[in-house]
Inverse folding.
């Protein structure tokens, strides 16, 4: 199974990528000697207690963790030491070990041992745990205290301005280089800034295709967010300006003191000897660019309408229009009755449902679709096959509906806990990077009281964390806020009909050029990215519809509104605003990105699904492209501001005090259609649902018990736990006569009986228990899926459906949306299809069945032959064939193939850890009292 280029954008960043051969150990030592103090900052710990917040109602039962460590900045000397000897800067890696240890430590977990694997998330720092205290830029209205254990900044301000200044200063101390990388990513300028590696080319192309903003566009977004939100909007702008002042104060201090991140030297922006060069100050529009990256990655559900149309046309070509549509709908699983739900109280929240009589569909003529080229005028290394391959991957990722989810939540109401207080274990699964995309902080000041995680460069507020007597978190939801319009061309390929008038498209472009640096030796190259924009969004494809030339554009409700969510986060940080679950839901309503939000305090739990869900015209099917005509536009849509009528808060899935909530990017509620495929009978959300439902039913849930449920699900192989028993049932319908196959069946059965986990024999062994069974299933799954479905569907339709939904996403796979070594697994795959089809062949009841039986033509005997034939083929594959090796691992190394790597976004490297499928930043909370 050859590996493909990873699809998770940030897994592909290479900055710095490697160091040239002249940096041998001896020369490294000489260079380091000249770069050490007095140029390193030193902040003494004052012999007095740090200021702490009085209003902490968690009673020592709030914990969190964020690997690898809080410190994401490293001087040139520290980078060289790390590259040469593996030494780590302080607090760069100290949260990685406890995070990794939970994989083997969770079976014996008790409440008093939770903080062996998490950090105490209480407000403040005990006097004997103060590592340093500083007054940034000599200000008297803010203090930053860092604790000894993790180095997390605890920012306490006496004025609002000083508080936010301190937040910006601390963010730059911990993530300046990363912040700089991502402001350039958001502007489509990464290669010119950090180097022309093919991965960097692909990354900037992905985001530029999604958000091709001009400087005026970026400024207008912050202006509009402020203008439309009254006093809170004005406060948000003041907070942003104070935050930026803090960031820029650190830039100036680190530049003059020569302790700025060493990557600036390695990428040619600063001179290590003379200190020549500039680190550009941050401005308001940089933060909008940063927000566009975060929103595009995690909070923009939808898209994929053209791919949906292509698979529908393939189904209709195979079976005819009526039967082909029925087959397509059965695989789409828009509202599958067997899907696991977050809101499971029986309430319905209809959204993007299939219309009885679709109107305005603009399906392409067969064979007419071509992707709109983004990159032009390639020169030098931009013209290599590797560069072109990166562009292909970036386009596929951008235009797919399979958005990265990668977060989970487990919340149990007090009615079912031992203490009578709600318990929550939740967090975002944002991948694994060095430094991490998120940072930890505590902020205490006028109108702000919170601790938790924020995306680097957007940390003027805590985005996921805890307040004085409540905690909140989010998972990616994926409901459809992106539509595809067919604009009819006129005059030439760059004019289109808008409300009957032939209108010129708007061209935006970005030219990038790079040359080799120490960090990235990619040969010199350049190209220009060019996007054609219409009132209906950027052009993504060209085609004909009924013989008419059209451009397919994509319009998302958050386009030109990347800054709007700042008001919701401001509210979540305000103890004067959030006093209970209704206030929490109201704050979440101000977040326009597509997220599932969860809440817990000492008495209540709550849930709200956020996002600006456009109200579509009557009869419009959100699954497919529609004509760009007034009759099919979003209701009350204003193209000048890209605003429309949105579904009311009551129409979003929401709940207060349900017995329990689970979310792992699964279906939110009945009749609430999400854009990604695969929300059927088997979803990774079932791994949480089965465990939490059982806990809640038994009662007496504790922090440790809920953490154990999460950790156990984090090691489970979804295919083995929920589908393999049914496959074995088919095989067991008759004796297995082939000895090698029989042995494999016994190994698979023993693995299922042992819990179907991908776990080490012992901590640090780097060898899996049930290793043979795991290897067999990894080899078997893609073979059995293809043999089960392709004969019935035909090659064209099978290929089209795999374009809508990947077959597999095992931890070791390089072909799932997250790529390899990313932890997150089993979000997208054909497990539901296999489950439904096998149950149908067995004669078992199936709600929402596929349109036909596929395995063995629907015959139990034929299906068994298919399974045994592919299983025998899988048994014959060597470990090196199943795990072919990559830039991290040698061929055949199963543990390494699964392992999690902290992908370097800077110069510091970290060790790999054993696989877990869990949030990157995670909280374990149980509040004991309330204001």
């Amino acid at each position: 199974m050859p590996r493909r280029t990873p699809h998770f954008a940030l897994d592909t960043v290479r900055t710095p990528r490697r160091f040239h051969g002249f940096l041998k150990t001896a020369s490294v030592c000489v260079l380091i000697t000249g770069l050490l103090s007095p140029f390193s900052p030193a902040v003494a710990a004052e012999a007095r207690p740090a200021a702490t917040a009085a209003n902490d109602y968690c009673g020592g039962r709030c914990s969190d963790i964020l690997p690898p460590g809080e410190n994401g900045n490293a001087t040139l000397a520290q980078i060289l030491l790390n590259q040469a000897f593996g030494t780590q800067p302080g607090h760069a890696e100290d949260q990685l070990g406890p995070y990794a240890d939970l994989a083997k430590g969770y079976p014996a977990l008790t409440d008093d041992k939770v903080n062996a694997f998490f950090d105490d998330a209480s407000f403040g720092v005990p006097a004997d745990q103060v590592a340093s205290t500083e007054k940034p830029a000599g200000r008297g209205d803010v203090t930053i205290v860092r604790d000894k254990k993790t180095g997390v900044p605890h920012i306490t301000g006496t004025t609002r301005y000083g508080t936010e200044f301190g937040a910006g200063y601390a963010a730059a101390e911990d993530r300046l280089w990363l912040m700089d990388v991502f402001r350039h990513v958001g502007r489509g300028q990464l290669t010119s800034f950090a180097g022309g590696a093919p991965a960097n080319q692909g990354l900037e192309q992905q985001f530029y295709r999604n958000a091709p903003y001009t400087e005026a566009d970026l400024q207008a977004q912050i202006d509009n967010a402020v203008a439309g939100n009254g006093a809170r909007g004005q406060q948000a702008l003041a907070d942003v300006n104070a935050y930026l002042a803090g960031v820029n104060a650190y830039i100036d201090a680190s530049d003059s003191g020569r302790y700025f991140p060493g990557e600036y030297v390695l990428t040619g922006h600063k001179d290590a000897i003379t200190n020549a060069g500039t680190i550009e100050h941050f401005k308001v529009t940089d933060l909008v660019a940063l927000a566009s990256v975060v929103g595009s990655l995690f909070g923009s559900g939808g898209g994929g309408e053209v791919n949906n149309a292509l698979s529908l046309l393939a189904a209709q070509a195979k079976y005819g229009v009526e039967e082909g549509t029925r087959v397509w709908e059965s695989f789409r699983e828009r509202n599958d009755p067997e899907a696991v739900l977050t809101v499971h109280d029986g309430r319905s929240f209809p959204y993007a449902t299939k219309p009885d009589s679709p109107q305005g569909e603009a399906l392409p003529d067969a064979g007419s679709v071509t992707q709109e080229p983004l990159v032009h005028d390639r020169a030098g290394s931009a013209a290599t096959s590797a560069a072109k391959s990166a562009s292909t991957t970036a386009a596929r990722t951008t235009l797919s509906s399979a958005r990265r989810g990668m977060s989970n939540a487990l919340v149990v109401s007090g009615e079912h806990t031992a203490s009578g207080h709600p318990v929550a274990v939740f967090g975002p699964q944002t991948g694994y990077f060095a430094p991490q995309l998120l940072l930890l902080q505590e902020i205490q000041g006028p109108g702000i009281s919170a601790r938790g995680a924020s995306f680097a460069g957007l940390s003027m507020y805590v985005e996921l964390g805890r307040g004085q007597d409540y905690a909140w978190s989010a998972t990616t939801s994926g409901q459809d806020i992106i539509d595809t319009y067919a604009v009819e061309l006129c005059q030439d390929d760059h004019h289109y009909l808008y409300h009957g008038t032939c209108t010129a498209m708007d061209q935006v472009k970005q030219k990038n050029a790079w040359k080799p640096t120490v960090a990235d030796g990619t040969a010199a190259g350049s190209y220009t990215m060019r996007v054609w924009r219409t009132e209906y969004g950027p052009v993504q494809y060209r085609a004909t519809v009924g013989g008419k030339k059209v451009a397919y554009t994509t319009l998302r409700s958050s386009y030109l509104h990347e800054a709007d969510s700042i008001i919701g986060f401001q509210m979540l940080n305000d103890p004067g605003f959030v006093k209970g679950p209704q206030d929490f839901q109201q704050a979440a309503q101000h977040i326009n990105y597509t997220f599932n939000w969860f809440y817990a305090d000492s008495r209540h739990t709550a849930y709200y699904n956020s996002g600006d869900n456009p109200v579509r015209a009557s009869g419009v099917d959100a699954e497919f492209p529609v004509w760009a005509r007034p009759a099919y536009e979003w209701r009350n849509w204003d193209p000048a501001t890209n605003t429309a009528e949105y579904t009311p808060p009551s129409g979003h899935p929401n709940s207060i005090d349900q017995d329990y909530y689970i979310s792992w990017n699964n279906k939110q509620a009945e009749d609430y259609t999400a854009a990604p495929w695969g929300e059927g009978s088997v979803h990774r959300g079932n791994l949480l649902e089965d465990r939490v439902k059982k806990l809640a039913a038994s009662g007496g849930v504790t922090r440790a018990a809920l953490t154990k449920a999460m950790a156990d699900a984090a090691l489970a192989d979804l295919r083995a736990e929920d589908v393999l028993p049914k496959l074995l049932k088919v095989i067991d319908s008759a004796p297995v006569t082939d000895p090698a196959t029989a042995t494999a069946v016994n190994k698979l059965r023993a693995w299922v009986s042992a819990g179907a986990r991908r776990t080490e024999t012992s901590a640090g062994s780097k060898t899996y228990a049930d290793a043979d069974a795991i290897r067999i299933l990894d080899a078997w799954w893609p073979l059995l899926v293809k043999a089960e479905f392709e004969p019935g569907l035909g090659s064209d339709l099978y290929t089209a459906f795999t374009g809508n939904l990947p077959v597999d996403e095992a931890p070791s796979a390089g072909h799932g949306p997250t790529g390899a070594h990313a932890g997150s697994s089993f979000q997208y795959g054909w497990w539901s299809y296999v489950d439904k089809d096998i149950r149908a062949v067995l004669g078992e009841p199936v709600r929402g069945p596929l349109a036909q039986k596929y395995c063995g033509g629907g015959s139990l005997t034929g299906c068994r032959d298919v399974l045994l034939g592919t299983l025998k083929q899988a048994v014959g594959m060597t470990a090196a064939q199943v795990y072919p090796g990559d830039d991290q691992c040698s061929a055949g190394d199963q543990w390494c193939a699964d392992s999690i790597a902290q992908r370097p976004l800077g110069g510091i490297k970290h060790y790999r850890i054993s696989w877990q499928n869990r949030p990157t930043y995670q909280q374990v909370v149980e509040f004991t009292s309330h204001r």
